[in-house]
Amino acid sequence: LKDEWIETVKENLPEANKNIADRYFEDEVNDLLHEEAIRNNRRPDGRGFDDLRPLFAKAGGISPILHGTGIFYRGATHILYALTLGGPGDAQLVEGMEYQTKKRFMHHYNFPPFSTGETGRLGGMNRRAIGHGALAEKALIPVLPTKESFPYTIRIVSEAFSSNGSTSMGSVCGSTLSLMDAGVPISAPVAGIASGLMMSLDYARDKKYKVLTDIQGPEDHHGDMDFKVAGTRKGITAVQMDVKVDGIPLHILAEAFVKAKSARERILDVIENEIALPRANISPNAPKIIAIKIKPDQIGLVIGTGGKTINEIRDTTGVDGIDIEDDGTVFITGKNGSAEKAQAIIEGMTKEYKVGEKFEGEVVRIADFGAFVRIGPNAEGLVHVSEIAPFRVENVGDVLSEGDMVPVVVINVDETGRIKLSIKQADADFAKKKAPDAEGKPRSPRPPRFDHRRR
């Protein structure tokens, strides 16, 4: 039809260029859509003003590798959603002139040219894609769990495969599906709808208008308002409005809110019919996060000089990351049991030993007055010669050797953290079994005593 219009203009106005013909055509279509809506109560696709396009929702089943997926259709608007979970260290660092923060939830929106039947270059993000992604992100943040209850970093990518209006609100709906499929314990599902407006061409005189629910391409392009509302059944989480007129009267805005709520609840019915609650468990492909608590003054011990200790733990266990907060909270992220291994090492390093605790320790050094026994990754205690056996031990080396594994019990921890251990209180028979000839062995001769008194 547009091509015929341009040919007609060329025939009747040979001096007119194509841009003028395009502009006249768009003006005619704009007037026609407004007149049809106001006078004949008709929309371009024949729907009623409050009708939604056909809806389809699917949670999961797209890829076993991804941690959460979803598909959402609204008419010819089709979007695929992919969600991945990461550790706290995967959060995005956001820096400004006077602040620095981290984002643990990111929503990225892609709108390739083929989604509107066009060809073009697939490259970096543009302003539109960034804005749509930010709107959907804002709509979902209020229902996300706290970092304390769910320490994962969450990233969702919305891929528009086909677009005929309202892909940003479609991204909200599908992102909800992928969040629940991934087992993210959101407080409530979120849906979004775009409402439009057709005001009479002579509105100042007749005050006629029509609020349109779930607008598609032509209504978005030629309409007077694009009003996006996202939220749960209990409230609104995000709003955005674009207008092409001088202003929207308050009563029209109120009507748009009411109709958006009704539409939002119908969409939520479809979403909840597909998946009513978040899955009980996260994907087995997602990393495991273990949170433990250490004292703030032990942070330096775990990190080590120049990060040496923490890097050794990472290399030894194969964890994805170890993140330490200022309050001493340690998040360990890993797969295949690596997180548990790192947890054991860190807990051993920072363990506070108490009187009465028993261990199997390794003798690491022999001295005249006793033996030093390692009972943890970063903990050694002294077994005084009097605590080795229930009988007198003349020479420590007669009973113990470096490398021996011995049973010990903590008998004292002083205010500086030095640990005293006892073998005889842990196992009175150990020394007898280890060195049966040591009991009753005569003392070795003492060296001569010197008289240091001044004469």
UniProtKB/TrEMBL annotation:
<dbReference type="InterPro" id="IPR004088">
    <property type="entry name" value="KH_dom_type_1"/>
</dbReference>
<feature type="compositionally biased region" description="Basic residues">
    <location>
        <begin position="443"/>
        <end position="455"/>
    </location>
</feature>
<dbReference type="InterPro" id="IPR036345">
    <property type="entry name" value="ExoRNase_PH_dom2_sf"/>
</dbReference>
<dbReference type="GO" id="GO:0004654">
    <property type="term" value="F:polyribonucleotide nucleotidyltransferase activity"/>
</dbReference>
<protein>
    <recommendedName>
        <fullName>Polyribonucleotide nucleotidyltransferase</fullName>
        <ecNumber>2.7.7.8</ecNumber>
    </recommendedName>
</protein>
<dbReference type="GO" id="GO:0006402">
    <property type="term" value="P:mRNA catabolic process"/>
</dbReference>
<feature type="domain" description="S1 motif">
    <location>
        <begin position="356"/>
        <end position="424"/>
    </location>
</feature>
<keyword id="KW-0694">RNA-binding</keyword>
<feature type="region of interest" description="Disordered">
    <location>
        <begin position="429"/>
        <end position="455"/>
    </location>
</feature>
<feature type="compositionally biased region" description="Basic and acidic residues">
    <location>
        <begin position="429"/>
        <end position="442"/>
    </location>
</feature>
<dbReference type="InterPro" id="IPR036612">
    <property type="entry name" value="KH_dom_type_1_sf"/>
</dbReference>
<dbReference type="InterPro" id="IPR012340">
    <property type="entry name" value="NA-bd_OB-fold"/>
</dbReference>
<dbReference type="InterPro" id="IPR020568">
    <property type="entry name" value="Ribosomal_Su5_D2-typ_SF"/>
</dbReference>
<keyword id="KW-0808">Transferase</keyword>
<dbReference type="InterPro" id="IPR004087">
    <property type="entry name" value="KH_dom"/>
</dbReference>
<dbReference type="GO" id="GO:0000175">
    <property type="term" value="F:3'-5'-RNA exonuclease activity"/>
</dbReference>
<dbReference type="GO" id="GO:0003723">
    <property type="term" value="F:RNA binding"/>
</dbReference>
<dbReference type="InterPro" id="IPR027408">
    <property type="entry name" value="PNPase/RNase_PH_dom_sf"/>
</dbReference>
<dbReference type="Pfam" id="PF00575">
    <property type="entry name" value="S1"/>
</dbReference>
<dbReference type="InterPro" id="IPR001247">
    <property type="entry name" value="ExoRNase_PH_dom1"/>
</dbReference>
<dbReference type="InterPro" id="IPR012162">
    <property type="entry name" value="PNPase"/>
</dbReference>
<keyword id="KW-0548">Nucleotidyltransferase</keyword>
<dbReference type="Pfam" id="PF00013">
    <property type="entry name" value="KH_1"/>
</dbReference>
<dbReference type="InterPro" id="IPR003029">
    <property type="entry name" value="S1_domain"/>
</dbReference>
<dbReference type="Pfam" id="PF01138">
    <property type="entry name" value="RNase_PH"/>
</dbReference>
<dbReference type="GO" id="GO:0005829">
    <property type="term" value="C:cytosol"/>
</dbReference>
<comment type="similarity">
    <text>Belongs to the polyribonucleotide nucleotidyltransferase family.</text>
</comment>
